[in-house]
């Protein structure tokens, strides 16, 4: 079982409260915002602010208020960790205000057309052209922003097919996007190319990019340590092994979900949906 590590992170300055959200400092000119829809990572430089993810369109006022009060700088660059609109729903607004949107190439491909999410039985309309990333990359990219080096690494077919791990080299912080749900069962978007195998590989990549002092910003949940991420990885592998064993014994989806292979992990979120997604990753193709 893994824990929320927020209490383990020392406060280096007072948090700034704004519209119900808070900017928590992670070092000089770096902070994270526990927003209504997702967690944001913020880097302040001389020309403005670089932000990792931008929440839903309905959260724009919250995001602006928190960043303005904490840094008094415009938002000039945004990195999307993936296409989901709880993370990229503010793209059009911020781009129209002058921000450059950067993302892995598959993010733009998905934002440009409607996406069906079977987990929610919902068709997500295509985003307007203003929301599409103006700069994209395939495998990796490095951004120099202020005094910070921002490394973007694509992890394929994890939560989606366009996930990016974002490492701030000097601050030693990694934003995981929805590759990491801290204290929650993860959502694997099978319709967007996600898979349990890719999710485990992505967590391994993040662990390889880190050391014992690295702090991790999950897509959802509290700030985490390397030990927290390692425990999350162990949970993923344990549930995957259990499901694979039961598939090998001839059990089908209904029986495996009913057996509750993730029951020993007392996490919030949708346990059955997670187990079904794991099953989909290992079930024989028909």
Explain how this protein is built.
The longest helix is centred in the C-terminal third of the chain and has 23 residues, at 226-248. An eight-stranded mixed sheet has the order 1-2-3-4-5-6-7-10. It has helices at residues 60-71, 85-88, 91-96, 105-111, 196-208, 226-248, 253-259, 271-282, and strands spanning 16-18, 21-27, 30-34, 39-45, 48-52, 75-79, 100-104, 115-117, 122-124, 135-137, 140-145, 148-155, 163-168, 173-181, 215-220. Helix content is 29%, strand content 28%. The chain has eight helices and 15 strands.
The assigned structural class equals alpha/beta
Tell me the CATH topology. Answer: Metallo-beta-lactamase, Chain A
Major β-sheet profile = 8 strands, mixed
What is Rg?
A: 18 Å
Overall strand count: 15
CATH class bucket: Alpha Beta
What is the compact description of this entry?
The chain is of the alpha/beta class. Helix content is 29%, strand content 28%. Helix 1 (60-71) links the parallel strand 5 and strand 6.
């Amino acid at each position: 079982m893994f824990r929320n590590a927020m209490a383990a992170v020392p406060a280096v300055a007072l948090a700034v409260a704004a519209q119900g959200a808070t900017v928590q400092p992670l070092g000089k000119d770096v902070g994270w915002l526990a927003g209504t829809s997702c967690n944001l990572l913020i880097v302040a430089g001389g020309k403005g602010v670089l932000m990792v993810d931008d929440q839903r369109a309905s959260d724009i006022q919250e995001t602006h208020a928190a960043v303005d009060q904490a840094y008094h700088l415009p938002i000039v660059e945004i990195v999307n960790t993936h296409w989901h609109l709880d993370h990229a729903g503010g793209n059009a607004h911020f781009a129209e205000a002058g921000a450059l949107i950067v993302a892995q190439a598959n993010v733009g491909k998905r934002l440009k057309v409607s996406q069906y999410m079977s987990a929610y039985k919902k068709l997500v309309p295509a985003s307007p052209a203003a929301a599409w990333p103006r700069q994209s990359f395939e495998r990796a990219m490095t951004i120099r922003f202020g005094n910070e080096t921002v490394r973007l690494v694509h992890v394929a077919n994890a939560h989606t097919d366009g996930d990016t791990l974002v490492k701030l080299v000097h601050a030693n912080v990694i934003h995981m996007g929805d590759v990491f749900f801290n204290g929650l069962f993860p959502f694997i978007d099978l319709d967007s190319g996600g898979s349990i195998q890719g999710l485990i590989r992505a967590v391994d990549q993040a662990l390889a990019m880190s050391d014992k002092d690295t702090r991790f910003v999950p897509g959802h949940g509290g700030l985490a340590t390397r030990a927290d991420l390692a425990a999350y990885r162990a949970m993923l592998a344990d549930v995957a092994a259990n499901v694979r064993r039961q598939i090998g014994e001839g059990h089908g989806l209904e029986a495996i979900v009913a057996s509750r292979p993730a029951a020993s992990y007392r996490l919030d979120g949708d346990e059955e949906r997670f187990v079904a997604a794991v099953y989909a990753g290992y079930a024989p193709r028909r």
